[in-house]
Amino acid sequence: MIGEFSPGLILIVGALLVPLLRGHLRSAYMLALPGLAFWYLLGLDHGSFGQIQTAGTTLVTLRVDKLSLIFGYIFLVAAFLGVLYALHVDDTLQHVAGLIYAGSAVGAVFAGDLITLFIFWEGTAIASVFLIWASRTETAYRAGLRYLVIQVGSGVLLLAGAIVHYRQTGSIAFDHIGLSSLASWLIFLSFGIKCAFPLMHNWLQDAYPEATVTGTVMLSAFTTKLAVYALARSYSGTEILVPIGAAMTAFPIFYAVIENDLRRVLAYSLNNQLGFMVVGIGIGTEMAINGTVAHAFSHILYKALLFMSMGAVLFRVGTIKGSELGGLYKSMPWTASFCIVGAASISSFPLFSGFISKALIISAAMDGGYFWTWLVLLFASAGVFHHSGIKIPYFAFFAHDSGKRCDEAPGNMLCAMAITAALCVLIGLFPWQLYALLPYAVNYAPYTVEHVVTQMQLLMFSALAFTVLMRTGIYPPELRSTNVDFDWFYRKGGKGLAVATGGALQTAWDGFVTASRRATRQVIAGIYRHHGPEGMLARTWPTGDMTFWTTVILAACLILAYF
Amino acid sequence: MNDSHTAHHPAPGDKSGKAYWLDNPRNVNRIVWALYAVCALLLAIDVFVHKHGPFKIEHLFGFYGIYGFVACVALVIAAKGLRVILMRPEDYYDR
């Protein structure tokens, strides 16, 4: 052991020095931070370290095992790539927020207890919102606020669950929990919000496309995969996750087909890919958990790559709407090529990363006899190729030529995309390197004739469907539009409710004020009647009356005294 | 976006005159025909692939291809239909 502190702290504390540095020194420093943390990680032994005694309980800030290590590795790789992609940005706020965000995610992964987890969990929420606000638009500000409320809410549920869990079991260990008690449901809900479960998903599609070009790349890597890690740690084999995950794979792809903002299309497909991982956690066998972890690993890379390529288009062209783009391969051939590598990886083409990771989950579903789930996963696999694999590159770089001409992406962006694309291909070519890092031993060969041929059939016939629909004009054109999703309920429905409630309150208040005024007027009129100029009590009485009444009272006193 | 550096060279129709391979519709047709050929080939070799899965439906001839095609067509048509219910003007939430 070199030391006993969470590797996340290297990024978080390191980020605080970034504002003091400028130019190339700052670039080198920021790139070195994830590298240093990675090097520290390589020297760690398995076990629980960094223990802090507090308030009668022990916090474990550094729990090292195979599950936390692989997430630690990929988070640090993603942090490095995210920093490299953002090097041209001259906005210190974004750099600091990005590093603290990544550091918090790493810290959460190595948390050994629920309180440490909670602290870093909220850290990811608060640091990441600045990547959205850094767009500095009204829309981004509002989306960021909605995002922050939901993310912090997830943390509050986690804390509440942890406290109830402690009261019930006397333990705050972040281990397998399973669904049984109230506490376990609270924690499950907290993880579910961050994992974008159906009906709790909309913060993702709402906020990610509003973040900055470079911020979205960072966002795509950490928050949701941290939730996947937490679910895999605490809820593996929880049966309800299978239908939840299956629903997650299926419904976002309908939105992805008709969405015009290409970064929002990617947000929907991110949601769909999380579904595969959640199904794997629900099945809970060694193969399924391996599949979930492997898929999270390759997903972080190809999803970041896709967001990078779309970010580069937004950076150069100024818009990312499918309806405005097309023909950009002429201006940005490298970006287009890297985008296609990301598209092939997310679509699980043989020789690319998605092929060797998603297969573990689908095989686990088959082995477990989950027939309907398997059918849904196949449908979602065809669908993800359709909207992420074809739609994204097609509408941005090909389709009809929009006539837009621009420069190729900046060098640091191209460099980040090239490394990410290389990793996607290397994982596809040498799956055993990744399999060796997984929590359990892998007994699965991805490159069999059966697997390659059936996967190619699924993909090529999906491409055929796209071609036929395009050529017959059935394929829906990209239109400038907003598609309402579940967020309608709090953005319009909630607003409507607030307006209606506000209206009712206003009416009630007005009524109260009117009634009070009337009552007050009556009181005043009453007083006026008796004390006003004409009032009986306000009359000036002559001195004779006074003498008369004094005599009467005196006489009464004498009579009383006499008796 | 504040940090997007727009760098248009206003050249509608690409006046630089450089002709790209994909600009020629015949080449696009070639790609489409190649796709048809690959699909036909993949369907043809299905007979020779031994499938080990537990579900009977998977062993039907050309299951993966047919399922992929039908799934995508259904997906697109359903999504197109959903536009009727879901689609709003771009500034819907800003009103």
Structural class of chain B: mainly alpha
* Multimer state: heterodimer
Number of helices of chain A: 20
Radius of gyration of chain B over alpha carbons?
23 Å
In short:
The complex is a heterodimer of chains A (563) and B (95). By secondary structure, chain A is mostly helical. Chain A has helices at 8-15, 23-42, 66-85, 92-109, 114-133, 138-169, 182-194, 202-207, 213-234, 241-258, 262-283, 286-317, 333-346, 353-367, 371-397, 411-429, 431-435, 449-471, 488-531, 543-562; strands spanning 47-54, 57-64, 482-483.
Descriptive terms for the model:
heterodimer, A: 563 residues, mainly alpha, 3 domains, two-stranded antiparallel sheet, 3 strands, 71% helix, elongated, B: 95 residues, disordered N terminus
Overview of this protein structure:
The complex is a heterodimer of chains A (563) and B (95). Chain A is mainly α and 563 residues long. Chain A folds into 3 domains: 1-235, no CATH class; 237-244 and 263-485, no CATH class; 491-562, no CATH class. Helix content of chain A is 71%, strand content 3%. Chain A contains 20 helices and 3 strands. Chain A has a two-stranded antiparallel sheet. The longest helix of chain A has 44 residues, at 488-531. Chain B has one domain (21-94). Chains A and B meet through α10, α12, α15, α18 and β3 of A and α1, α2 and β1 of B. β3 of chain A pairs antiparallel with β1 (87-88) of chain B.
